[in-house]
Amino acid sequence: MAIQFTAHEVKVDLKEKRRLKTFLKDLFADEGQGLKDLHYVFCSDAYLLEINKQFLQHDTYTDIVTFEMGEDPDVTEGEIYISIDRVKENAQKFHVSVNQELHRVIFHGALHLCGFRDKSKTESTLMRKKEDEYLVKYFGSLE
């Protein structure tokens, strides 16, 4: 099982990577989802916009795009692309630290790979609740 973090043409200050990897493995276990490989790519708005256009036919900026790459629905092999530009902007918008917003989005992508969706209001409410739950578990409280 491997979890990787890569920065593509951006700087990202991701502290305690080893602890975060362990926490993510536990998140998948807690949600009853197997985990084989997970690759996070931190990138710019422009890079993620191109991915959004090319693979999802969406011509909009977004903070995250998540891809399940494996064939077994019970074992995740995924790639998660996160726009650092969006993370920074959303941190300001929601009056939270960039670190907290970055981790929210990291957990958000993992939750998508565990089967959580956020298209409807009910789904979005549950997703936000799960994000908050994992932020509190990771940081001890919400900042």
TrEMBL record:
PANTHER family on file? ENDORIBONUCLEASE YBEY, CHLOROPLASTIC (PTHR46986:SF1)
List the NCBIfam families hit by this protein, alphabetically: rRNA maturation RNase YbeY
Which Gene Ontology molecular-function terms are recorded?
Answer: metalloendopeptidase activity; RNA endonuclease activity; zinc ion binding
Q: What biological processes does GO assign it? A: rRNA processing
- Listed HAMAP family: Endoribonucl_YbeY (MF_00009)
**EC number(s) from the headed UniProt entry:** 3.1.-.-
The organism encoding this protein is: Chitinophaga fulva
| Gene encoding the protein | ybeY
Write out the annotated subcellular location.
Cytoplasm
Q: Which InterPro entries match?
A: MetalPrtase_cat_dom_sf_prd (IPR023091), YbeY (IPR002036)
GO (cellular component) term, any one = cytoplasm
The UniProt annotation places Zn(2+) binding at 108, 112, 118
Family under the similarity heading: Belongs to the endoribonuclease YbeY family.
**Alphabetized UniProt keyword annotations:** Cytoplasm, Endonuclease, Hydrolase, Metal-binding, Nuclease, Ribosome biogenesis, rRNA processing, Zinc
Q: Which residues form a coiled coil?
A: none
Cofactor(s) recorded in Swiss-Prot or TrEMBL:
Zn(2+)
* Name of the featured protein: Endoribonuclease YbeY
The UniProt entry lists the main location of this chain as: cytoplasm
The cofactor note reads:
Binds 1 zinc ion.
